[in-house]
Amino acid sequence: MVVKEKRGRRRYIAFTVSTGLTKESLISALRKVCGDPPYVIQCAEGWGVVRCPHDAVTVTVDIVRLADPSSVSLRTSGTLRTLRGLYPELERLRPKKRM
Question: Where are the beta strands (DSSP E) in the chain?
């Protein structure tokens, strides 16, 4: 069985956000906007990446805009590698790997 059949397709959306916004504060703001917020991959120094189902991209962009009105959606991709390749800041701010 293919993994996508089990969990569904995912999209990753790169944003510019307020500079003082952290991952925790973005998650908190998203929870205030909606009960089940999209998953925040990373958020630091004015950059953020959020994961969502492939059919909920526009809704997710709207939710992030409500949580942080200064946020701007830059690009949507099926992989984090593509986004981090296009925006070197996302690679530099990438969270440390868990061990």
Answer: 10-16, 39-44, 47-53, 72-77
Angstrom distance (rounded) from CA 58 to CA 52? 10
* d(C-alpha 78, C-alpha 74), whole Å: 14
> pLDDT digit string (tens) for 76-92?
999 999 999 999 999 99
| CA pair distance 26, 30, nearest whole angstrom | 6
Q: What is the pLDDT of residues 13-43, one digit of tens each?
A: 999 999 999 999 999 999 999 988 999 999 9
The answer to whether 80 touches 47, Cβ cutoff 8 Å, is no
Given a contact cutoff of 8 angstroms between Cβ atoms, the answer to whether 8 and 53 are in contact is yes
